[in-house]
Design a protein that fits this description.
The protein has 512 residues and is mostly helical. The chain contains 24 helices and two strands. The protein has a two-stranded antiparallel ribbon. GO terms for molecular function: monosaccharide transmembrane transporter activity; symporter activity. It comes from Brachypodium distachyon (Purple false brome).
Length: 512
């Protein structure tokens, strides 16, 4: 076990002291739950490499294969095909729809059962994709994977935030994003290895998802349910016992009292008004807006355009097929290592500083890549080897900044800012917003690259400027704040968002 922790009382904030240890059991449960991210990352990373494989294109998209190998074809438009983009994006459209059902499953049956359901959908989807004999079967498999993503991405971040002590909540939650990056890297390595296995290489790539899916299924059978979920569903004794287990001490009175009070308050509010309807209240808008905007901005950094289609992008830059896949592996490795930076820093320097620094670094990289492609990549030529390598380096610079900021924090911040009565419902909007705009980017990127050419990177650069302004003015710092004290210590004290709580405060005074 690691060292103990305590949170000192604070008369101004009404904080109480929570005692306990950072137990190995918490980390083990966290690692298993974060396997949802491993599966999500594998799905993100595998599609781009598979769509760059000739055997896959011949099987399902022969017109794209023919266009890819025409000597005079426009470099920017080789892969512009709506059906090909649908192969990638259909997963996220399914996840968008599934996330709302996952919210209700998460509330009624708990976070653990929701992750188990996700693993079943992952296994079914993997089997359909790897064994696909036609495009319809392939898309149905991707839809099953999408339902798994919707369920897993709903439950895992909530699970991680609810079992973590406040002062390491950021680091533990970022295990989810770390697993996403590891999944992307593993997928890119698998694609590199299977690209020379003809004609079955693409089947091995898609079938590789069975590995993380099986780990999640078996792991979900042994992990705990969160104390908050147990108390929320009327199992108070089990909830207290589980809190004692994950904190490594029986001195959990203060923390258990706060969890119980939050659950009782949420239950009373839910009797008066259902969670999704309560999200329409004025005081629910600050965390809801932040949750949605963080997910939209995460996608409009342009990261998934690069992660989905990195091999395609590098082929556009003139790399051969194997070289483009190897370049994608390099960016995937940078992605993993940079996420470790976030685990170390997020609970030390805070969320806002990481996000703002990343905006500057991503903007420089995007503009530089756009400039190189504008000057050196024309419709029917490729840049010199030196400029192509420079592009890979710049994309690594860009990916590294995203990986320690908008990647993990896009999931962390929404998972920790909702009060219990709207937590699962509110987070479902975060998940669905992420999936909606992931779908938009996945479905549109190749067409946008064909139409906008190099200017697509300037478009994402403009988005990054807007994101930085939003963080600077409207995003509160949540570092070190217990999850059930966010309303009083964050939203009511923020210069802008506090106005949304005045009516609720006046109502409490009048009732007294």
């Amino acid at each position: 076990m690691a060292g103990g922790f305590s949170i000192a009382a604070d008369g101004k904030s009404g904080r109480r002291e929570f005692k306990g240890k950072i137990t190995w059991y918490v980390w083990i449960c966290g690692i298993i739950a974060a396997t949802c991210g491993l599966m999500f990352g594998y799905d993100i990373g595998i599609s781009g490499g598979v769509t760059a494989m000739d055997d896959f294109l011949i099987e399902f998209f022969p017109s794209v294969y023919a266009r890819k190998h025409r000597a005079k074809e426009n470099n920017y438009c080789k892969f512009d095909d709506q059906r090909l983009q649908l192969f990638t994006s259909s997963l996220y459209l399914a996840a968008l729809t599934a996330s709302f059902g996952a919210s209700m499953v998460c509330t009624r049956f708990g976070r653990k059962r929701t992750m188990q359901a996700a693993s079943v959908f992952f296994l079914a989807g993997t089997g359909l994709c790897a064994g696909a004999s036609n495009l319809a079967m392939l898309i149905v498999g991707r839809i099953c994977l999408g339902v798994g993503v919707g369920f897993g991405n709903q439950a895992a971040p909530l699970f991680l935030s609810e079992i973590a002590p406040a002062h390491i909540r950021g680091a533990l939650n970022i295990l989810f994003q770390l697993n996403v990056t590891i999944g992307i890297l593993v997928a890119q390595i698998v694609n590199y290895l299977t690209s020379t296995v003809h004609p079955m290489g693409w089947r091995y790539s898609l079938g590789g998802a069975a590995g993380p899916a099986a780990v999640l299924f078996l792991g979900s059978l042994v992990i705990t349910e969160t104390p908050t979920s147990l108390v929320e569903r009327g199992q108070k004794e089990a909830g207290r016992a589980m809190l004692e287990r994950i904190r490594g001490t029986k001195e959990v009175d203060e923390e258990f009292e706060e969890i119980s009070l939050a659950c009782e308050t949420a239950a009373k509010m839910c009797e008066e008004e259902k969670p999704f309807r309560r999200l329409r209240r004025r005081e629910s808008r600050p965390p809801l807006v932040i949750a949605i905007v963080m997910q939209v901005f995460q996608q409009f950094t342009g990261i998934n355009a690069i992660m989905f289609y990195a091999p395609v992008l590098f082929q556009t830059m003139g790399f051969a097929s194997n070289a483009s896949l190897l370049s994608a592996v390099v960016t995937g490795g940078v992605n993993v290592l940079s996420t470790l930076v976030s685990i170390v820093l997020v609970d030390k320097i805070g969320r806002r500083k990481l996000l703002l620094e990343a905006c500057v670094q991503m903007l420089i990289a995007q503009v530089a890549v756009g400039g190189i492609m504008w000057v050196h990549v024309k419709a029917s030529n490729s840049p010199s080897h030196g400029w192509a390598l420079a592009t890979v380096v710049l994309i690594c610079v860009y990916v590294s900044s995203f990986a320690w900021s908008w990647g993990p924090l896009g999931w962390l911040i929404p998972s920790e800012t909702f009060p219990l009565e709207t937590r699962t419902a509110g987070f479902s909007f975060a998940v669905s917003s992420n999936m909606l705009f992931t779908f938009v980017i996945a479905q549109a990127f190749l067409t946008m690259m064909c139409t906008m050419r190099a200017f697509i990177f300037f478009f994402f650069g403009i988005c990054i400027v807007v994101m930085g302004a939003f963080v600077l003015t409207l995003l509160p710092e949540t570092k070190g704040v217990p999850i059930d004290e966010m309303v009083d210590r964050v939203w009511r004290k923020h210069w802008f968002w506090k106005r949304y709580f005045r009516d609720a405060d006046d109502a409490k005074v009048n009732n007294c």
